[in-house]
Amino acid sequence: EVQLVESGGGLVQPGGSLRLSCAASGFTFGSYDMSWVRQAPGKGPEWVSATNSGGGSTYYADSVKGRFTISRDNAKNTLYLQMNSLKPEDTAVYYCATQLVAGKLWGQGTQVTVSS
Hints:
By secondary structure, the protein is mainly beta. It has no helices and 11 strands.
């Protein structure tokens, strides 16, 4: 089955850190660019970060630049998002996503809540 499964979300205090993971299966993970997208309550999806298929190029939204780091392990078919210095405005459901030949593929999401 072609799927993406996120994990690692949770409740964290402002200034804290979390590491999200996204396990891919059913397709050749190492051949595809990957992204993280988030959706806050009552808002539309917001692109957060992306990396190319080899992981050598990374891109970030201005809102997370310098705080978040995207990485991937193609041997483990896994995408990561290290989130540091978290702020309440980072609260959202975080999704990993990719564009396959057959269409867009998103995971089910993992909730990140930043609150004291």
